[in-house]
User: Fold this.
Amino acid sequence: MNNKPFWQGKTCKEMAGLHVKVTFNSGTIVTGVTNMNGDIPEADNLSGREGNEKFVPYDYVKSIELLDDPEYERIDNIEDVRKGDEVFTLSGNKYKARAVYESMEVYADGDGFIPIIQRKYFAYALRPKPKQKPKLPDHGGLWVDKNGGHWVVDATVNCMQLVEDSLGWMVDGVCCQVNDRIACNRAPFRPAKAVEA
Assistant:
């Protein structure tokens, strides 16, 4: 297992734009996105270096952890790059991958030209994560929406919102298909649990 910190061997430019969690020796924890020098603007400087200098944290930094960006998947191996990925070079330039060849060169979209990014100049790539569909009712029964609202869903997956008044539960008048905008805006749904009296 590799216990080497993810930042070791990287330049300050390569540290730019990363979502990180920093723990200081004092116990203070700060999360944020690093700037062009690998520092977090909301915190103290992390290394005091810049540009193509090697990133080395100050002694008062206990640890720096890379956090997952909820929008992107980070790719550190050029062999895993696919068409459409955002490719970052060691010089800090960003390109969109147009094609990847067996020679492990990435052809990218540039400003009026097609740059070829070779393995030795590759820093990392980012791939947008696919958007997940909201959890919607998929069978009949009683369901609860994200706001705690109750819905009854019939066998043909039509939903009706329920409200409680002094007489008990009744249909609120909101009736829609499960995949309708009204239901999607109240997702995610979860099946209601029966409560014993």
